[in-house]
Every structure is written in structure tokens, then in C-alpha cells.
Amino acid sequence: MDTSAFMSTPEPKHRHRQPREKSTRLRGIARLWDGARVHRDVSVVLRGGRVVEIETGDDTDGGEDDCENVDCDGLIAMPGLVDCHTHTTFAGTRVADFVKRLGGTSYTTILEGGGGIHTTVQATRMATTDELAFLTGARLEEMLAHGVTTVEVKSGYGLDLRTERRMLEAARAASGPVEVMPTFLAHVLPRGRDRDEYMRELLDVNLPQLAGLACAADVYCDDGAFTLAETEAILRRASGLGLALHVHAEQVAWTGAAALAARLGALSADHLERIDADGIDAMAAAGTVAVLLPGAMLYLRDTPPPVKALRAACVPMAIATDFNPGSSPVNNLWTAATLACLTMGLTVEEALAGITRNAARALGRPDLGWLGAGSAADIALFPAPVGEPPSVEVLVQHLGGTRAEQVWKAGERVL
Ligand code: NIG
Ligand code: FE
User: Fold this and answer.
1) What is the DSSP string of 304-372?
2) pLDDT tens for each residue of 280-331
3) CB < 8 Å & 24+ apart, contacts of 288-291
4) What is the radius of gyration, based on Cα positions, of the chain?
5) Which fold does the domain 81-362 belong to in CATH?
6) Ligand 1 site: residues with CB under 6 angstroms?
7) Ligand nearest to the CA of 221
8) Can you tell me which atom of ligand 1 is nearest the CA of 220?
9) Pocket test for ligand 1, best of 291, 328, 330 (most atoms within 8 A of CB)
């Protein structure tokens, strides 16, 4: 992790004349996951939106006289959790799809019949930007209650320029205590539109006009969505406009999108239930993060991605909720972490890294997802479940974790 920028910040020259920036010490933390390992009985000192130091019992000597001490007795501390793949901005309901799928109709059949994502597109187009911002904000609040401080939010339920813009504006407007990283998503082709004409509109009008509202671009490359060649054209255009890249890859059908993502320098390839050996090798060579989405896998009653092969190839693995009204109505990142262990075979350590350090990497944010001198002061503090001794593992063991008792974002208490 590059901490040099923070470490080399010069001390102010006339320190005694300047109001000193307030420091805060979170004291009495029973267990802390720093992104790579567990610490016991520590305090964390914060200043200027950053972590200054993790102190062990011996070095909390009260040296920072003007430090405000905050009692965190017995709590379990995590870097603020990062949900690196969500579709949080949407209107309407997909409960009818859920019932149909339980009756045996497939996700792709519903989509190709004009339901699924298209149902959400209709409802989202009808909602006002204020309504979309309100819905997004209310959903982010639920995420914050479980310690999530950064959420990637995709567009992709508008498909036309006007609604895609309004979705991105709503996502940005909802950014607050929970930081939103908006992504432009080329999700599916609108019903009734000519393919080539829509592609030209995407490349020549929508992407250039919307690039300024997004941090990244994503394409759903699959049956019923974009082809590999279309995906490549969209990603190349987005990259040329300065956007980071993600790809919905190898979910329903194998398409070769994971290898394409790696070749184009995408930050992540997501889903991957059907990735092959070439895709894994390409991702490993490029350092592309594999974002695992156990909510979608469970709701579509799918088989798991090849986690053993991803692990053996040292592909970094992140876990996200994929929160959306259709394939993953799951907005609790702890639930996704537990499901990744139970249904995909991740270890608890991989799950913890998957919702912190590797999720931050999938968003190109080396300041997030870890705790130590120079990291962002994004910290979530949880009580152990009733009657359990404090440990980080127990938060993964209990489906849904526990509700956070305190959350800090950029050094400010937000819960
Ligand atoms: O990541 N697979 C494509 N896109 C979303 C689903 C969105 C939806 O069903 O509304 C996903 O699972
Ligand atoms: Fe998704």
C-alpha cells in the first residue's frame, strides 16, 4: 500500500500558533482486522481523515493530550466495508420474476421475453430523479447500518441517455456518509431498437455525454445482452474517455469476456460462474480482480465459479452484494461474505479480504479497505452477536453479521 503521500506530509512550521487539527482515539477495541490480519486490544488514532496509528495496550500513554477519546470497549473493528458491485439505484419491483423463476422459468427466458431487467427499466424511466435519489439514499442507509462506507452504484436501468443521466445524478446526489462511486453500465439493448443504431448512439452520444458523471464503465456481456465484440467496442470507448473498466463476465453463458477484461486492463471481471482456464490465466497475469457475487448465484440457483482455480492462480478475489431487484435482492455485504464461504468455498480470511482490501482494489482505491498509518479513517465497529466472545470470524459465521455500533467515514462519526 502506498502510504508515502501521507507519511511525507510536512509538519506545520509554527505549530504553536496554529490551531492543531483534532485527533480522535478509538479506545478499547477488542479485535481489529487491518485488511490482512487480526490485532487484539488496540486503540486507533485518527486525524485529518486518516489513521495516524494503531496503538497496542502498552503505547496508549495519553501522549496526545488533546486527543478526544471515544469508548469502543469490547467492539470488533473493521476497515469501513466496500461493496464494489451494486445496482442500488432503481425503481419498481421484480417480485413477479422471483415467483416465475421458482416456477421454473429461467432468468434469460424472462429477460428475452421483455421482463426482468426491462421491467426495472420501465419503472426507473417513470421515476423522478428525486425519487431515485431518495430510494438510493434509503438503501445506502441500510448498508451503513452494517458498516459499509463505500458503495459502487451502476446505472443501466435507463438505457436511454436521459434516464441513464438521471440515474447517475441520483447516485451522486445520494453520496454522503456512504461514499458512492458511480459506474455507467451498458446493461442490455433497449427493446425494439436496432442493434447497430443503438451501438452507434452508445459510442458516439451516451458515453461521451455521461463520462463526466461516472468513475467507471461496465458492460453486461451475455446471452440476451451485449456480444463480446460489442463489449470490446464499448470498453475501448469508455477507456478512451478516461473511465476505469469493469465487466459482467461469464455469468449465464461463457463469452470470453473475462480474458477481454484482463486484456483491456479492467479493474475487475465480475460473476465468473463460467470462466475457463484461459480467462483465469489472463486475469492472473493482468492482476484483474475477480468479483464474486454469491447473491446472484444463489437466487439464480447457479453453480459456483471455480474458486480453487482462481485461488491457485493467485487471482485477487473480492465479494459484493450485486444488490439489485432481480437476480440479487441482497443488500447486506456480511450476508454475501458468509454465502461466499458456504456456497463457493472461500475461507473466512478470504471473505474478510473480499469485503475490504480486495473490494477496494476492484474500485481502484488503495486508500480504502485496510487500517494502518496513512489509511483512510473509514472504520466500522461491531458488537459480537449476543453471548459470543468478540472475534472477526464470528461476524462471518453469523449470516448478516451484526449491526454496527459506530461507523466513521474519513475521520467523522457517521453512525
Ligand atoms: O449483475 N446480470 C446482469 N445484471 C445484474 C442483474 C440485474 C437485474 O437482474 O436487474 C447482475 O446480476
Ligand atoms: Fe451486476
Assistant:
1) PP-HHHHHHTT--EEE-----SSS-----HHHHHHHHHHHH---HHHHHHHTTHHHHHHTT-TTSS--S
2) 999 999 999 999 999 999 999 999 999 999 999 999 999 999 999 999 999 9
3) 288/258, 288/261, 288/262, 288/315, 289/315, 289/316, 289/317, 289/318, 289/358, 289/361, 289/362, 290/315, 290/316, 290/317, 290/318, 291/84, 291/85, 291/246, 291/318, 291/319, 291/320, 291/359, 291/362
4) 22
5) TIM Barrel (3.20.20)
6) 87, 116-117, 120, 220, 248, 251, 296, 322, 324-328
7) 1
8) 3
9) 328
User: Ligand 1 test: best mutation among 109, 118, 154, 322, most atoms within 8 Å of CB?
Assistant: 322
Residue 245 corresponds to which cell in the numbers above? 473498466
Mean pLDDT (the chain) is 94
pTM value is 0.94
Would you say 361 and 74 are in contact if contact means Cβ atoms under 8 Å apart? no
Distance CA 341, CA 349 (A): 10
What length is written for the chain?
Answer: 415
The CATH fold of domain 4-78+370-413: Urease, subunit C; domain 1 (2.30.40)
What is the number of other CB atoms lying within 10 angstroms of the CB of residue 107?
25
Where are the chain's structural domains? 4-78+370-413, 81-362
